[in-house]
Amino acid sequence: MARCSATQLGVLVLVLSTSYAVASLTVDMQLEQLRNNYVKLEQVLATKDSRLEFLEQKVQQHGNLEAQITQLVNEVNQMKTQVRRTAELELKVQRQEYLINAVHGESRSHNNVSLRQGTTQMPKSCADLKNNGHTSNGMFLIMGVKMVETVFCDFSKPTSDQNFQKWIGFADVKSSPVYFHAQRIGNYGAANTGIPFNQLRLNVGGALNPVTGVFLAPKAGRYFFAYSGLSWDSNAKVQLQMKSATVGWFKIGEAHCTPFNTFALQSILDLKQGDEIRIIHIHGVIHDRDGNNFSNFVGLLLEEDIFGC
Ligand SMILES: *[C@@H]1O[C@H](CO)[C@@H](O)[C@H](O)[C@H]1NC(C)=O
Ligand SMILES: *[C@@H]1O[C@H](CO)[C@@H](O)[C@H](O)[C@H]1NC(C)=O
């Protein structure tokens, strides 16, 4: 380099200063560019800011919506409860109306003979009940062959469905009660005669004649009878006898015993209206002398043939 000429040096200076000018120009431009960039950045940020604000609003609105939805759900639930209550009340009112109508109809039909003797048939099935206008499912009484029966009717099913009518059982309906409990005061020794019962504890329905000791079946059905007594100082023999419209007195059961012993008879009988029952003394003496109530004759109607007899 020591051998460089002045010209060479001048050229070098020129080159250097030119480079400096170029360099300083570039810095200015870069500054300008930076400023521009900064402005742009500010604009972008401002846009972002407003976008953010918008989003914040959205989020807030969303929160409000959530609260509104919760409130609506609550209101719907309340309405559902009210609707259910209204339906329940309607059902109650319907039931009461039905009962009132039934009671009115009942009292009318009781008071008005022409209504009782109308063409209305007793229902024999759920299908009959449906024809008569029943629509509410439930347990109903229907007319069986001989007795009143209970069935469950599901009117929501077609008549042909096997679950349309479900048989529950016989309804223990008696047109009126029949039962008695009879005892004796005093010894009884008349051979081959029906035993009279001169001390009645109960004679509901009045079917036992205490003077003759004969029970007259007031209606057809199954009856239970039992008799027990004590013999006096000899062997004794008694019988439970029955008499029907076509057959005279015949033996159902017989009991014997040695002196001062117990004899007993029991039976369950299918009787027609008008059939008769008695305890007959065959021989010996029946002991009721000291008021100890040794003789006990009881009877009761177990089930009555309400229809078909
Ligand atoms: C009984 O019912 C018949 C038939 O519905 C009716 O014509 C009659 O007026 C009623 N009688 C009474 C006393 O209600
Ligand atoms: C037998 O029955 C009658 C009538 O109920 C009663 O007065 C009497 O005291 C009874 N006899 C005994 C020993 O309990």
UniProtKB/TrEMBL annotation:
<feature type="signal peptide">
    <location>
        <begin position="1"/>
        <end position="23"/>
    </location>
</feature>
<feature type="coiled-coil region">
    <location>
        <begin position="31"/>
        <end position="82"/>
    </location>
</feature>
<protein>
    <recommendedName>
        <fullName>C1q domain-containing protein</fullName>
    </recommendedName>
</protein>
<dbReference type="InterPro" id="IPR050822">
    <property type="entry name" value="Cerebellin_Synaptic_Org"/>
</dbReference>
<keyword id="KW-0964">Secreted</keyword>
<feature type="domain" description="C1q">
    <location>
        <begin position="173"/>
        <end position="308"/>
    </location>
</feature>
<dbReference type="InterPro" id="IPR001073">
    <property type="entry name" value="C1q_dom"/>
</dbReference>
<dbReference type="GO" id="GO:0005615">
    <property type="term" value="C:extracellular space"/>
</dbReference>
<keyword id="KW-0732">Signal</keyword>
<dbReference type="Pfam" id="PF00386">
    <property type="entry name" value="C1q"/>
</dbReference>
<dbReference type="InterPro" id="IPR008983">
    <property type="entry name" value="Tumour_necrosis_fac-like_dom"/>
</dbReference>
<keyword id="KW-0175">Coiled coil</keyword>
